[in-house]
Amino acid sequence: MSRRDRYDIVVVGAGVVGAAAALACARDGLRVALVEARAPAQWRADAPDLRVYAFAPDNAALLEDLGVWAAVASARLQPYRAMRVWDAGGGDPIVFEADAFARTELGWIVEHGLLVDRLWSALPAAGVELHCPDRVSGLEQDEDSATVLLESGLRLRARLVLAADGGDSQLRAMAGIDTVTRDRGQSGLVAFIDHANPHQATCWQRFLPTGPLAFLPFAGSDGGEGRRSSIVWTLPEAEALRLRDCDEASFLVELDRAFDGPLGPMRAVSKRVAFPLKRQLAESVVAGRVALIGDAAHVVHPLAGQGVNLGLRDVAALRATLREAAAGGGDIAAPSRLTRWARTRRSENTVAAHAFDGLNRLFSNDALVPTLLRGPLMGLVGKMPPLTHAFWRRAAGL
């Protein structure tokens, strides 16, 4: 089989970032094909997805513009109005509160599966041509186009191909782009926890010598009383596996000791899952007419919940570049345009990745000097409103 007529955009990978990119391009009148190896499971309210994001306001605005945010909000969405961050070694916490920023919320906690489900639901009406299940088996490029070869035998030729196929991106490898990876031997342990006291629409994060422990408020099946949270606990790999596999009573004892927070007695209401953590940056985010977005370009520590936010900012910035090109009647994937977009995005994502990794290194150790300094330094930052405002505005994309 052959498909020789040219698309404007071919997107490979239909997770949150890839589906959003395809939908954004189609909404802007471009001819788009989307390739995905497997269709996602349908989201169910009674089966919460353990993968949750602290969703930023700029990306909520992007999804609202794409016509899907209302569908997400009507299903399940937990606003958070405050963040409290403190160190186990002592010192005052850093506190971020919505009122201080003249907002009703700082952001929202939302499930990965729900975002994907609502984005996929919007694809057909937008005119996105979906190839699923199918996989990329090859890549060809010439001066004015790139062609992806699919296992089904189809050849999809486009002015621009977007690799959104994750941290282990096959398309990135086919484009000849290498990565720089740092593996710190840590894993993230995730689960849903019910607790006796309300979460107060607050994200709680305590830094421990083994890594940060976060409690993210979740709109679960607790009668609307706000007594359920999603935990993300960074631990050495062996310790994460031990706590994943130990009995529930032992796990809760260690969780309570590690958190030492105000949420009261706890009860586990889901399985526990551990996943490896690493920092990975592509050495380039453009090769000819292939551009990398999302985890294909950058994998960061989940310290501030910024992974999906950075990926969607790739999409928003690329959308602005493509709109500018279309308005001027130029080639949407002209090397000069892609180079400018790539320079800006790679710079921002590199700074973010190294900043998150640096914070994790600073707090995830029990060396004497960092332990003595970090608590007081955190307390000092918390007493400087302009600095806390700057931190939050950067995280919020504002």
TrEMBL record:
SUPFAM superfamilies for the chain: FAD/NAD(P)-binding domain
UniProt pathway: Cofactor biosynthesis; ubiquinone biosynthesis
GO biological process terms held by the UniProt record: ubiquinone biosynthetic process
UniProt keyword annotation of Cytoplasm present: no
Residues spanning the membrane: none
Keyword terms: FAD, Flavoprotein, Monooxygenase, Oxidoreductase
FAD-binding domain mapped to chain residues: 7-330
InterPro entries assigned: FAD-bd (IPR002938), FAD/NAD-bd_sf (IPR036188), Ubi_Hdrlase_CS (IPR018168), UbiH/COQ6 (IPR010971), UbiH/COQ6_monooxygenase (IPR051205)
CC cofactor: FAD
Family in the record: Belongs to the UbiH/COQ6 family.
Protein name, per record: 2-octaprenyl-3-methyl-6-methoxy-1, 4-benzoquinol hydroxylase
Taxonomic source organism: Marilutibacter maris
